[in-house]
Design brief:
By secondary structure, the protein is of the alpha/beta class. It is 42% helix and 20% strand.
């Protein structure tokens, strides 16, 4: 099963590669000039999961497999990228392939040269969002010309698509946010998804404080703008976390405490990624293997089974479900059964976060 992907983006020299290094423990080049990152660097990161650890320990599982997220460090964008400036076309092509965007904003001073010469995260946010919007607008304008031809012949699907595209163009021109949740009609959502617009991708903003944060009033204004966008932000001291990434956990904690950081950047980012992608985790557990599986919230049991293998979904009979808390308190699957804590659920069952499931199927 392929991991969901988060593309790390931002202007050149805002600390993207340093943060990628810190978050993923993957060594990549980081230098004081634009376009250090040309080909995207990719790292698949296990999601820290105390529940999985507890299950594996309780059952003495031979294997423990965490669910994962893929982080893609994409080349720095510059003003004019939508017109092909810098590595614009390459950047925009890479970013269309990810499930969510992690937008790094430079909130520190320091020796590294900013591509715009001064440090202003609000300006940087506006530059990148404008370039992404223009890129989407170009796609929509090309698409509407094609759809218009079919619309003239009276094709109902083309008429519907034309109306949706026109609505999206109007929204972008008015600088309005576009979110899939605003469209309740499944057919409309399907059409918009197929357009693969960057504007519809969920975004998390990383406020990168480096080791030398800029003045707090500007930071507070930035946070307000992000909240108004219904997005999340994560505060990370990128340089610090990169410097301490190889230390033992207790040593890391000493440094984080010194900076009054309650939680490391990766944990914060994964938590926010799960929220913004609307994900939950269920488990399969036993002496051979305990494993975590990520699925979209409100997924029905057969589709959840399909994450393990397509045969499980095709031949789905039932799901035998134990809640995590009940499993841990009982100490085993057998004892959970004896206490009547295992439920048998059918095709309409919506899987809950923390469910431990054994799927019955027949192909």
């Amino acid at each position: 099963m392929s991991s969901l992907s988060c593309g790390i983006v931002g202007l050149p020299n805002v600390g993207k590669s340093t943060i990628f290094c810190a978050l993923t423990d993957a060594a990549v080049e980081s230098a004081n000039y634009p376009f250090t990152t040309i080909e995207p660097n990719i790292a698949v990161v296990d999601v820290p999961d105390p529940r999985l650890n507890n299950l594996a320990d309780l059952l003495n599982s031979k294997k423990k497999i965490a669910t994962s997220l893929k982080f893609v460090d994409i080349a720095g964008l510059v003003k004019g990228a939508s017109k092909g400036e810098g590595l614009g076309n390459k950047f925009l092509g890479n970013i269309r392939e990810v499930d969510a965007i992690v937008h790094v904003l430079r909130c520190f001073n320091g020796e590294t040269t900013h591509v715009m010469e001064t440090v202003d995260p609000i300006r940087d946010l506006e530059i990148i969002n404008l370039e992404l919007s223009i890129s989407d607008l170009q796609i929509l304008e090309k698409r509407i010309l094609k759809v218009e031809k079919n619309k003239r012949s009276g094709d109902k699907k083309s008429i519907k698509e034309f109306e949706i595209i026109q609505s999206l163009i109007n929204s972008i021109n008015k600088n309005e946010e576009i979110t899939l949740s605003d469209f309740s009609d499944p057919e409309e959502r399907k059409i918009i998804k197929e357009l693969n617009l960057i504007s519809t991708k969920p975004t998390i903003y990383i406020l990168n404080f480096g080791n030398d944060s800029i003045e707090s009033e500007r930071i507070e204004q930035l946070k307000e703008i992000i909240v108004q966008k219904n997005s999340f932000f994560v505060e990370i001291y990128g340089l610090l976390e990169n410097e301490i990434k190889d230390l033992e956990e207790d040593e890391k904690r000493i440094f984080l405490d010194e900076y009054k950081i309650k939680e490391a950047g990766l944990s914060q980012l994964i938590e926010k990624s799960y929220k913004i992608l609307n994900l939950i985790t269920y488990y399969t557990a036993g002496p051979q293997e305990s494993r975590a599986w990520s699925i979209a919230n409100n997924t029905k049991a057969p589709a959840a089974a399909g994450k393990i293998h397509t045969d499980f979904q095709k031949g789905f009979i039932r799901a035998e479900v134990i809640e995590y808390i009940d499993f841990i308190s009982s100490g085993s699957e057998e004892e959970s059964k004896n206490k009547g804590l295992m439920r048998s659920e059918g095709k309409e069952y919506i899987v809950k976060d923390g469910d431990i499931i054994h799927f019955r199927y027949n192909v």
